Amino acid sequence: MFRIARAAAPMFPGCDVLTRTILTFVRSIMTYLQGLENRDYNSNELQTWINTGKRESGNMLCPNHRRSAPKLLMVPLFQTQDSRMHPLVTIALRASRDAADVLAQQSLRLDRIQVVQDIEGKDVTSIEVDADKSLRYHIQNAYPNHSIESRISGLKAGKPGEPRWLLEPAVGSTNLFHGFQAFGVAIAIEVNEQLSHAVVICPLLNEEFIATRGAGAQLNSRRLRVSPSDELSGALIGIDPIDLDPVLLADIQTTLLQAGCSPRMLGETTLDLLQVAAGRYRAGWGIPSSPAGLHAAALILQEAGGICGTETGSPAVAAGKELLFANPRIFKRLVKLRHQAGASMQYDTLGQ
């Protein structure tokens, strides 16, 4: 702001005087904003200032000036996204943003990524470990008594009855390792053993998805709703080919194409769920992979008005081997298409 003031001043006569005036005004505004952030005044003093335009120590905008300021409405000058959120979501966003920065920065130097350990037959890399540490750092500092469960570092048990955090430090890790932009960080939070909050951040796509049960879902502060269309013709349908039998995958694609759909593959079911929630895809078809990522994305989809179910149409996702998801008008038709593609699902031992 100081640079703007100095750059604008030469455009007017008496620029030296005007520069000092503008800088004084900018300093006053910054002082005021800092005061709001630090909350260094009590509520009675704030109410008195709002009603009269004065503080006991002088004008709040210009402390050294005794002339009263104009009255203000009872509306914050700036209302950040975090100020309207549940405290758990605020911390989840802070942790996710930091971890997403780790992924984004290290994705620029893929040659430096190293395999550091093996978990359940899958390699874990240094970038996933760093992102996991970043997530845990913020959560443990804010809520040391909460339980934290991560695909990378396992379970850290908290006190009974406290919320449980489910972490996925690298959603779409295969995409990340190949320089493809479709990857991110996911956090799901259980309160009283019920999934209540979710955050998913895709740093290179500049997208932040959040959801709170009963309060809806948002993408970059914009309310999310699934597509209202009931047409399969021309619809984008997400497919995750990982672990699918190649013959069955071909049958699925053929069935969708015959129905007039346009299959799309991001290589990660969690991200496909988000695309349906955002109204970009009308439906999706995949295999459950990362529990934390799927929990987070499923809550976001449900709060956006979508439906998740198994290959039989059952809402008991944990009991199924496949995951089907769509807007309510298409879900039943998607289940029918699934049965047209094959009576049973076969799985291969392909790794992600």
Strand percentage = 15-25%
Give the distance, in angstroms, between the N- and C-terminal Cα atoms: 48 Å
Q: Give the second-level CATH assignment, the architecture of the largest domain.
A: 2-Layer Sandwich
Strand order of the largest sheet: 4-3-5-6-7-8-9-10
Helix content: 25-40%
Explained architecture:
There is one protein chain. The protein has 352 residues and is an alpha+beta fold. It folds into three domains: 2-40, no CATH class; 82-223, Fructose-1,6-Bisphosphatase, subunit A, domain 1 (Fructose-1,6-Bisphosphatase, Chain A, domain 1, 2-Layer Sandwich); 236-341, D-Maltodextrin-Binding Protein, domain 2, CATH 3.40.190. It contains ten helices and 15 strands. The strands form three sheets. It has an eight-stranded mixed sheet with strand order 4-3-5-6-7-8-9-10, sandwiched between helices. Helix 1 (2-8) runs antiparallel to helix 2 (15-38). The radius of gyration is 25 Å and the shape is globular.
Write the SSE topology.
Blueprint: H1 2-8, H2 15-38, H3 43-52, H4 87-106, E1 115-119, E2 122-125, H5 126-142, E3 147-150, E4 154-156, E5 164-171, H6 173-177, E6 184-191, E7 194-202, E8 207-212, E9 216-219, E10 222-223, E11 236-239, H7 246-258, E12 262-264, H8 269-277, E13 283-286, H9 291-303, E14 307-309, E15 323-326, H10 331-341
Parallel strand pairs: 3-5, 11-12, 11-13
Antiparallel strand pairs: 1-2, 3-4, 5-6, 6-7, 7-8, 8-9, 9-10, 13-15, 14-15
Helix pairs in contact: 1-2, 4-5, 7-10, 8-9
